[in-house]
Amino acid sequence: MKIEEMSAAALKEAVLNKELSCTDIVKAYFERIDKVESKVDAYLTLCREEAFKQAEEIDEKISKGIPVGLLAGIPIAVKDNICTDGVRTSCASKMLGDFIPPYDATVVKKLKEEDAIIIGKTNMDEFAMGSSTENSAFKKTKNPWDLSRVPGGSSGGSAAAVGSLTASLALGSDTGGSIRQPASFCGVVGLKPTYGLVSRFGLVAFSSSLDQIGPFSKTVEDSALLLQAIQGNDDLDSTSFKGDIKTDYLSSIKDGVKGMKVALPTEFFQEGLNSEIREAVLNAAELLKEMGAEIYEVSIPITNEGLSAYYMISSSEASSNLARYDGIRYGYKAPDYENIDDLMKKSRTEGFGPEVIRRIMLGTFALSSGYYDAYYNRAQKLRKKMKEEFKKVFGEFDLILSPVTPDLPFKIGEHSEDPLSMYLGDIYTVNINLAGLPAMSMPIGISKNNLPIGLQIIGPEFGEDRIFKAAYALEKKINLDYLRRDI
Amino acid sequence: MKIDKSTVDYIAKLAKLSLTDEKSEKMAEEFEAILTHFQSLNNADLEDVKIDYKDNIKSVFRKDETSVFEDKEKLFQNVKSLEGSSIKVPKIIE
Q1: pTM over 0.95
Q2: Angle at A178 between CA A42 and CA B14, to 5 degrees
Q3: Which residues numbered 119-178 in A keep a CB inside 8 Å of some CB on B?
């Protein structure tokens, strides 16, 4: 097995047993990058020199018998909306095209403390707004399964990097599905943790009450490993959870699903869902049943309204969060202007792409007087009710299963002219962000035209361990080979 | 609901964005389609839902302790028009 095909867990073991050096690993990954990255275009910035330097440092630690971290020697890619000290962080926008953060995000600090090796910054939809990575101001990332199709978004680069074997693990962010949908499209595992589990300090804010950073990986076990490394309370993020959290997912991950009550919401299987995806999800439920879980049908009617509430809330929060970009302290500054107002207007209009402008406008509208009650306030009420409904469901059931997307990965350019049709693809993922719950997308099948199909496993608040158990069991049962060796 | 160009222009002013007439009209159409679809927000029965921000949420405070950010130059590394440690801006008060 080639180095880039090994799981992160296997790489770590090889490093600790001195079968592989970190330098061997980084070398293999950059050879792979040199071979396929020009076809996939997952990265905006590659950190070749720094990665080799870090590898050398960790190799020295190991040779001296100094204990190393949880992610020792593992090459990891970081989405370009997560601040990396001294390394350009652009959010795939002209607005931050040359922005060099003066600090590391808390998750990046944790990666470094655990001796992970940061390989580069990945492409995304501008400011995390989009579902295809086509909204990047710099390049379009391709799906490793079919280079004429999108990798999904907004964390398309991170998903494609893991999917094309140019990173062992990756970090993404999920506001309305931006980890889960690209994970599904690229045939990798992607997890959106419970809101508050992972610090948002250093994550460029899009929608502060919805954003969460989460792991991309090839396997379920690797997902748990990375989550363990990045989770935890952070004084620098006042929305980060202060209560007790599970610190060890790996020890219980093989427990199995016997006796687990799993619900399938009828609203998620309506008309409009691709039949192959439906079959794959129902098949997954059958497999869980074979392994001892109990499958039930449940109805959660409020989920039908989730998409509207999501776009109202996220656009409103975005309009507020993006007000800081004025060309003065950092970011794009318009070259010609007459006065301060003109400077700000021109910097913003020239620096932001069309989807970002659209969402700022939508959000400003929803918050403006006369419309606030009808749109923003109403959406928040719906959100509160949504949270309560899900809480009721989890009072009875252990997990919820659903599709991740209504359709298979689409062709580049297919939805880019019609924003609404792009938004409709988020129908199964947004409700989860509104409710603050954890959810994973894992590969569950391959379509007739050789495209990956993802399954969404939703857990109760801080129920990531339950998700890992079910996902691990399914992964072993299905035992499909998802590695895209030839691109 | 009907969104016309003048509404879009007003919103653009609030958001400090400037749209060309063509883009303004296109956006008005897109908004209409999006907001029409989002009328479904009215379907749910939300009569009994009260948003009381004291629900289950406790404000978290940090100790008011100062610490030194060592590398002050770094803080200004992204400013386009720096003079010393001052940021140069156009005249604000006429």
Answers
A1: yes
A2: 105
A3: none
Question: Is A208 a catalytic site residue?
Answer: no
Residue A82 tokens read as 């997560």
Helix or strand (DSSP H, E) at A112: helix A106-113
Across chain A, which has 487 residues, the per-10-residue mean pLDDT values are 96 96 98 98 98 98 96 98 98 98 97 98 98 97 98 97 98 98 98 98 97 98 98 94 93 97 95 95 98 97 91 96 95 94 96 96 91 88 94 98 97 86 88 97 97 98 98 96 88
Tell how strand A169-174 and strand A75-79 pair up. Answer: parallel
Sign of torsion, CA A103 A107 A109 A112?
A: negative
Q: Which of A330, A343, A384 sits opposite B90 (nearest CB)?
A: A343
Nearest to B79 among A330, A358, A384 (CB): A330
CB-count exposure of residue A352 (10 Å: 0-12, 13-18, 19+): buried
**Strand order in A189-192's β-sheet?**
A43-46, A117-122, A75-79, A169-174, A212-217, A189-192, A439-446, A452-458, A399-403, A261-265, A294-298
Per the annotation, the verdict on A93 as an active-site residue is no
A102 to chain B, closest Cα gap in Å: 5
Distance from chain centroid for Cα B43 = 28
This model of the complex carries an ipTM of 0.92
CB pairs A-B closer than 8 Å: 117
Residue located via tokens 């409904």: A389
Task: Please tell me if residue A238 touches chain B, with a CB cutoff of 8 Å.
Answer: yes
